[in-house]
Amino acid sequence: MSQAPAAVDSGIVRKVALSSFLGNFIEWFDYGSYAYYAVIISAVLFSADDPTTADLIGTFAVFAISFVMRPIGALFWGSMGDKKGRKWTLSVSIFLMSGATFLIGCLPTYAAIGIGAPLLLLVLRMVQGFSAAGEYAGAATFLAEYAPTNKRGLYCSLVPASTAVGLLAASALAFATNVALSQDAVLSWGWRIPFLLAGPLGLIAHYIRTKLEDSPTYQAMQEVVSGDEGDTPHPVRDLFRGHLRELVISFGACTLNAVGFYAVLTYLPTYLETAVGMPTGDAQMATNIALVVYVGFIFISGKMSDRFGRKKMLVTACLLFVLLTVPAFMVLNTAQFGLVLISELTLCFILTLNDGTLSSYLTETFPTEMRYTGFALSFNLANAIFGGTAPMVSTWLIAVTGSTMSPAWYMVAVALVALVAMVLSHENSHKHLDEI
């Protein structure tokens, strides 16, 4: 076992934090834009008679299908991140992500090229899914390996916080364009703005990352590996051979985060508009306010996890989702702005107990030589199966059952699965990452 690396200069940690924040912000600004413009995209790039059923489900199906690439991307980027380094992997993946997003903003409409429009959208979304698979896990791993042990939860909470800020920026921009532009202007060119912004933002994030070095923890591991005369390390092989139990438990823990994140933070505006009948502006405003508060909740949760431990925080989140999700959706169905906002804030608070803790929990689950791979695979596999499908499944459940409460019961079921996983989980909150 290598010795714990010496403390890192605080200036370097700040640069790592900035690069992690910005890269993850770009990813989720792009994903949030797609979700918040779902109704517009369905009208521009698809063709169906009923925009609230076939067309909207088709838009969310493309959203979900892109997640098929997430596990594939996780294996690739995770392996590269453990072999070639966190810096190299994050610098390359941001190019693919921002490039694909930029091209979505350039897509011709269904009226111009017919079926080619949704097919090209699908291809670009799959490129997004492939490249995005390495971003969240890589940013969290990179930051965790630089962070002080007693503040790892707080530092790692910066990653989900950047996710929320990205969604907030996308939501705010969607709200602003809907207010400032006519419906014809939004359909014509307004919806393209957030996707086109990904180009310059991606270049900035890439530049910052090229100026950083890999973490001392990773470099110490590389020195040990280079001096070992045994077999060459193979992160994917070693993960399945020696850490399958940890991988399965981590996957279970990630399922609730996947469904909760996409249901609460990206699907709710569409749910409130199409299922509940709330005005678009009110639904978007409630989500914007909830996202602002959510960012503050995230940092509080990260700090609390440093004090109380990751396991207690994650178990608490599971129990609260089981108990309060259905009542919260009942309140959402009133379509009254004040009550809807209180309900969204409640769901956001519960989600932050999970989201603000999960990134540090996953970095503490796997050893350095397979940390990126284990984190990326468990997180992205859960997102591919449960997260990317959450909007589509929710829309489908409502259409099939005729009940606007069906998404709530779905979330309760997933919370019970995550609870079992967390009961079986570990607690490494106060260990240095070299000791895991």
From TrEMBL:
Its main location: membrane. It comes from the Bacteria. The keyword Transmembrane applies. InterPro entries: H+-coupled_symporters (IPR051084), MFS (IPR011701), MFS_dom (IPR020846), MFS_trans_sf (IPR036259), Sugar_transporter_CS (IPR005829). It is a multi-pass membrane protein. It is found in: Cell membrane. Keywords: Cell membrane, Membrane, Symport, Transmembrane, Transmembrane helix, Transport. Residues 16-430 form the Major facilitator superfamily (MFS) profile domain. The chain crosses the membrane at residues 28-48, 60-78, 90-113, 119-143, 155-177, 189-208, 247-265, 285-302, 314-331, 337-354, 375-401, 407-424. Belongs to the major facilitator superfamily. Metabolite:H+ Symporter (MHS) family (TC 2.A.1.6) family. This is MFS transporter. It comes from Adlercreutzia faecimuris.
